């Protein structure tokens, strides 16, 4: 089933300069009891975002009005730990389209790509520049151009290219779905099964 | 031409198709599912109006969300009950074998796979759970996947997957007394960090692994993901074949002998090249415990938490945040810290060998008054064995009580939550903030260390009590 096409993003960013953000922080296990994909954004970063009485914690970035936008910028090794796709769903459902970090955990990266959420891996140096620029001026914009595999920090003009495998890029740009692709080669799969019988 | 690694041999034999510049279409031999990461995948194939392609290759059990007391009663938590019921409904609808709650084969998905003989050398296996790497202990390529990928497997028995790089970790030598499989893997992760294996599939090689039981090998491979690796595997040998023989799904008679002949071929060629290779000496490994909030933050239990001088500049912020959460100070001595909870269980250390180790240690001793201990068998089969071997009785005499099988306080999805601010020594796999309950603090260790903590009430080097 087709998903939304990924278009070039020109947005302010939300900085989360913490390393090793694991999927238990992104969405704690006690919120995984749903049987649909919707609504996980309400509990994104639940225990960093709300206190025990469910009041927003003023010092957490998602509760600070100066920061907004569809790009989440985080420290290295983002998305480590559990394979829960709910983490990607929560980030996407909250409204983010891109996560920028200097390093992503493997399973999270796959899960994000399968949900139209683009993980953009940049150098430590570029990540540092983004954090600095956004902190200095939260209205700073980032341009994420998937077609040309380029991320630009508008304020300074700093840019960097990022990697993505050509198949996944094609899927995101066109809203294609992996399962449609796999179903289209089912005869090939059946042939493969015969060779192993 | 250079030889091939064991990982390459298995992976390459399962590639249905290579997409140019893209991922491989990988055929999956066995697919395990549970109640938490499968409902959206079943909903997806229902929306597409298709059926499960090869229902005989998927096996289901509820584990993450089940209570560990009164399992004969309906699940009290409405959402949990609904999720478990949904699994039953989906399995019935699509003809998938289900080991439901109270079935003699129910248990943590990574405990029951090997126990039933479903896990076999040379297979590709996946499950919507990162600890699927456990099955690599049998010389299989096994790894955790997301729900979209669960849907791919249900729909086509294949997934699209980029091929990881290869790493080999060699540990040679004899382990000292009181040092277990859990200590080896905690030691490795402390050396290579929680992200040191990202992008790789690890082969664990060397005499330290060859000398481990299958349970020990499963503990090691289980935690491959905790250094970020896609998975970990160990070449199968006589220990592997002996474990599989006679199990429900294992080949029987002549077929078993033929299978063993094939399985014996599953090893890395002498001239195969790895992208990264690391060597450790078993004699350097001591009982380990974690002190921070990722599994890479571990130290020998007899030592201290590192001082800030010992932490690299760019890791200082993470280290300080961890210390603040744990309520520890840099440089603190580990031994002697007061502990509130002990959790023995999980897909890492909830197997019979783990319960035996705990029972052997606590026999004739008593649980410390300040400790609340939760001992949770990994499966109904482990529970039965524990009863038959007198483990349950030994534990009761020492003041412990065996709960019923499930993932329990490893991820605290059910009611087994460590209260906020309390310190838990846990045989599970993750010490993330709030992993065992909001505000809970976790220190990861072996079942032997956990048992020693349970009777002393404090962090203790188990070797001093052996």
Q: How many helical elements of chain B? A: 16
Mean pLDDT of chain A: 96
What is the name of the CATH superfamily of the largest domain in chain B? Aconitase, domain 3
Q: C-alpha Rg of chain B, in Å?
A: 21 Å
Number of strands of chain A: 7
What's the main sheet of chain A like?
7 strands, mixed
Query: Any idea how many domains of chain B?
Result: 3
**Oligomer classification:** heterodimer
Give a short summary of the structure.
Chain A has helices at 23-26, 46-49, 86-94, 106-113, 124-136, 166-174, 178-184, 186-196; strands at 9-16, 71-74, 98-101, 118-121, 141-145, 150-153, 158-161. Chain A has 197 residues and is α/β, with parallel strands linked by helices. Chain B is globular, with a radius of gyration of 21 Å.
Observed structural traits:
heterodimer, A: 197 residues, alpha/beta, seven-stranded mixed β-sheet, 8 helices, 7 strands, 17% strand, globular, B: 466 residues, Aconitase, domain 3, Aconitase, Domain 2, 3 domains, five-stranded parallel β-sheet, four-stranded parallel β-sheet, 16 helices
What does this structure look like?
- The complex is a heterodimer of chains A (197) and B (466).
- Chain A has 197 residues and is of the alpha/beta class.
- Chain A has helices spanning 23-26, 46-49, 86-94, 106-113, 124-136, 166-174, 178-184, 186-196; strands spanning 9-16, 71-74, 98-101, 118-121, 141-145, 150-153, 158-161.
- The model of chain A has no long low-confidence stretch (mean pLDDT 96).
- With 466 residues, chain B is α/β, with parallel strands linked by helices.
- The termini of chain B are far apart.
- In chain B, helix 6 (181-192) links the parallel strand 9 (165-172) and strand 10.
- Chain B folds into three domains: 6-161, Aconitase, domain 3; 165-279, 3-Layer(aba) Sandwich (Aconitase, Domain 2), CATH 3.40.1060.10; 333-465, Aconitase, domain 3, CATH 3.30.499.10.
- Chain B has helices at 6-12, 39-48, 78-94, 109-115, 147-156, 181-192, 207-210, 214-222, 238-244, 253-263, 316-326, 346-349, 352-362, 380-388, 391-397, 447-456, and strands at residues 15-18, 24-27, 30-33, 58-60, 97-98, 124-127, 141-144, 158-161, 165-172, 200-205, 231-233, 276-281, 288-290, 298-300, 341-344, 372-375, 423-426, 441-444.
- In chain B, helix 2 (39-48) packs across helix 5 (147-156), helix 13 runs parallel beside helix 15 and helix 13 packs parallel to helix 16.
- Chains A and B meet through helix 4, helix 6, helix 7 and helix 8 of A and helix 2, helix 3, helix 5, strand 8 and helix 11 of B.
């Amino acid at each position: 089933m087709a998903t939304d096409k990924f278009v070039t993003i020109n947005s302010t960013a939300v900085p989360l300069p913490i390393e090793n953000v694991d999927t238990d922080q992104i969405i704690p296990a006690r919120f995984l009891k749903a049987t649909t994909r919707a609504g996980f954004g309400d509990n994104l970063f639940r225990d960093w975002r709300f206190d025990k009485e469910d009041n927003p914690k003023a010092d957490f970035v998602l509760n600070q009005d100066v920061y907004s936008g569809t790009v989440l910028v985080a420290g290295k090794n983002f998305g480590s730990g559990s394979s829960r796709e709910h983490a990607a769903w929560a980030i996407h459902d909250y409204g983010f389209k891109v996560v920028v970090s200097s390093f992503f955990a493997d399973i999270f990266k796959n899960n994000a790509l399968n949900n139209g959420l683009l993980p953009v891996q940049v150098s430590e140096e570029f990540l540092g520049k983004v954090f600095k620029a956004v902190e200095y001026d939260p209205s700073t914009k980032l341009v994420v151009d998937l077609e040309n595999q380029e991320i630009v920090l508008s304020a300074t003009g700093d840019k960097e290219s990022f990697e993505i495998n050509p198949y996944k890029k094609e899927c995101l740009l066109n809203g294609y779905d992996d399962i449609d692709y796999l179903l289209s080669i089912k005869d090939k799969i059946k042939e493969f099964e015969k060779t192993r019988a | 031409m250079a030889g091939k690694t064991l990982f390459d041999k298995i992976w390459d034999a399962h590639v249905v198709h290579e997409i140019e510049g893209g991922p491989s279409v990988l055929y999956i031999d066995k697919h395990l599912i549970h109640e938490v990461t499968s409902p959206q995948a079943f909903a997806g194939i229902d929306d597409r109006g298709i059926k499960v392609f090869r229902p005989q290759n998927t096996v289901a059990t509820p584990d993450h969300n089940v209570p560990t007391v009164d399992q004969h009663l309906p699940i009290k938590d409405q959402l949990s009950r609904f999720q478990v019921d949904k699994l039953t409904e989906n399995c019935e609808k699509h003809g998938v074998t289900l080991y439901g709650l109270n079935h003699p084969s129910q248990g943590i998905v990574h405990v029951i796979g090997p126990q039933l003989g479903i896990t076999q050398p040379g297979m590709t296996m996946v499950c919507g759970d990162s600890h699927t790497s456990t099955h690599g202990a049998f010389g299989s390529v096994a790894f955790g996947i997301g729900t979209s990928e669960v849907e791919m497997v249900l729909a086509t028995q294949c997934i699209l997957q980029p091929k990881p790089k290869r790493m080999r970790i060699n540990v040679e030598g004899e382990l000292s007394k009181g040092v277990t499989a859990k200590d080896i893997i905690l030691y490795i992760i402390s050396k290579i960090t929680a992200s040191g294996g990202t992008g790789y599939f690890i082969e664990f090689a060397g005499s330290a692994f060859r000398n481990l039981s299958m349970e020990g090998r499963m503990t090691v491979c289980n935690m491959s993901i905790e250094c970020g690796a896609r998975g970990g595997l160990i070449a199968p040998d006589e220990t592997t074949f002996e474990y599989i023989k006679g199990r429900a799904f294992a080949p029987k008679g002549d077929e078993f002998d033929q299978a063993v002949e094939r399985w014996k071929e599953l090893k890395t060629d002498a001239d195969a090249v790895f992208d990264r290779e690391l060597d450790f000496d078993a004699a350097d490994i001591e009982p380990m415990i974690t002190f921070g909030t990722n599994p890479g933050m571990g130290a020998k239990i007899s030592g201290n938490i590192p001082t800030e001088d010992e932490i690299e500049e760019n890791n200082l912020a993470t280290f300080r945040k961890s210390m603040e959460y744990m309520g520890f100070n840099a440089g603190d001595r580990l031994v002697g810290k007061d502990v509130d909870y002990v959790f023995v269980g999980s897909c890492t250390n909830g197997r019979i060998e783990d319960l035996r180790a705990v029972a052997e240690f606590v026999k004739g001793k008593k649980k410390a008054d300040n400790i609340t201990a939760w001992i949770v068998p990994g499966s109904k089969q482990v529970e039965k064995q524990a009863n038959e071997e007198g483990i349950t009785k030994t534990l009761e005499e020492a003041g412990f009580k065996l709960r019923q099988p499930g993932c329990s306080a490893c991820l605290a999805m059910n009611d087994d939550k460590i209260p906020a601010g309390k310190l838990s020594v846990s045989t599970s796999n993750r010490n993330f903030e709030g992993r065992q309950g909001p505000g809970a603090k976790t220190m990861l260790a072996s079942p032997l260390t956990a048992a020693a903590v349970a009777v002393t009430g404090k962090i203790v080097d188990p070797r001093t009590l052996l």
